[in-house]
Each structure stands twice: as C-alpha cells, then as structure tokens.
Amino acid sequence: MRIKAPAKLNLCLYLGPRRPDGLHALCSLFEPLALADSIEVSAADRDEVICVGVEGENLAARALAELRQQGWNAPPLRIEIEKRIPVAAGLGGGSADAAAVLGLARDPARGGSGWVPDLPAIAAELGADVPSQLDPAFSLVGGAGEKVEKLPAPAPHAVVLLPSGGGLSTAAVFAEADRLGLGRGEEELDSLATRLREAAAAGGSPLEYTELLANDLEPAARSLRPDIDAALDALRDAGAPHTLLTGSGPTAFGLFPTLAEAKSAAAKIDRGDAIVCEAGRAP
Length: 283
Description:
Order of helices and strands: EEEHEHHHEEEHHHHEEHE
Helix content: 25-40%
Low-confidence stretches: none
Number of helices: 9
Radius of gyration: 19 Å
Distance between the termini: 16 Å
Shape: globular
CATH class of the largest domain: Alpha Beta
Largest sheet: 6 strands, mixed
CATH architecture of the largest domain: 2-Layer Sandwich
Number of domains: 2
C-alpha cells in the first residue's frame, strides 16, 4: 500500500494565551497542499518505521507505538517514508506522516480486531498539527490544534514556498513569542474565528480576504532567523499578491491565483529551494 501525507499551509495563525497545560490557544486556517510525502506500507516480521534523512525517532514511529499501546493488534508493519516535505519548515511534514500512520487503524485491509482507538485523542497528544492531518482538508483550527472545523474547499489557487533550509524549532519560536510578549486574548481569538469562518464560507480563494491572513509568530521567527526577511522580499518582488510565513516557519510563501502565475514567479526568484504547488485540496 502506498499512501500520501500532504503538507499543510497556515494561511493565518493567531496566537492566544498560554493554557494551564502549557500549550497556547490558537486560531488558524489550515489548507492541504499538493506537496506530499510518500509512504509505503508492507507486511513485516516486526514493526519498523524507516525515514531516510531524519535522524532519531520520528513522529510517525511514535504514532505507531501509541496505536500499539492503545491495543491496536494488526499484524506487524514496515513503514517507509519518502520525504518530499522539507523538515522543520512549518509545513507539518512530520505531523502529516504521523496522521497517515494513525489512519492505518481505520483501514480494514490492515487487519486487527476491528476496534479502532480514539485517533483524534492520540493525534492531539502527538502534536498541534496532527489532528487536522487525520483528514486533510481546508479547516478552521482552534484550541491548541485539537479543534478542527471543516470548511468549504476554496477556489483553485497556488503557492510558491521558500523553505530557507528548514531547521527552525517550533518550541524555540513559541518561547521567543512569549519573550516578545506576543499574543491575543480569548475574546479576540473568538472574534477572529467568526470572521474567518464567514470569509471562507463561500468557498472563494484566500486572495479574496487577505486582510485576515496574518501570522502572529512571524516576529518571533524572524528574530531567530533574519533570513526570512529576504525570502518574503523575494516573493513580493516576484509579484506575489500576498506573502506570509507558514506556521512557526521558516518557510515563507506567496499566494497566486493560478499555478501558471506561481511558476512564473518562481522562475523570477531563481532560488534552488523554491517549491511550486497547488493549494486547498489534498492530492
């Protein structure tokens, strides 16, 4: 079995106060990208997760281990992940892989007793981006990532991604955001969620409501990685109608009405790390 684990894009990310559990309240619009990791699943003598280029235990291995701990008794699996999503780039690649592994428990072909663990609960324990990746779709995300509200798919559009080498720790960005005193109150988050829901309800392109597309983590990420500024400038100079940082960064992105316009802009930027893809729907 071969499955795809699509990247996600934060079209906006509003940061709320720190919760008693230590996590921050968030309000964000997530959309899946055509960019995706490829995962090969096959029978094995023992569970094994292989991801060339990612050192140490990855989130997909933790997802499989948690399924076993919760009592999922399907036969042993060999899971090979071919990374196409840049690592630690704010694109949710590790979360996508973990969610795809959790989704195996819903597949009757994988065997087991037929009992399926509480996947949303496991996903929330694994990380803020994992719950939305269980069923990748255009979504309004709240809480610390565990509240996922599906929205109508947006009109076709495309993005140019500039990952800038990845490697930016999410925890470090949130810590820097706290140091800088960034964030909003719960009432403001609720108001923003309402506005985003209303703006996206008609299924139009995100380019129709760019006034709502901001990332509160951007100042923190730029403080840690000043090279983000150059990526954003390059996208603007290439004609991107709207530019932003996705997630905790360091990937900068530009929104474009069509794939052809995105490809043309990427050619002008002429950077080896540029990725062009369609957005809004899972591959």
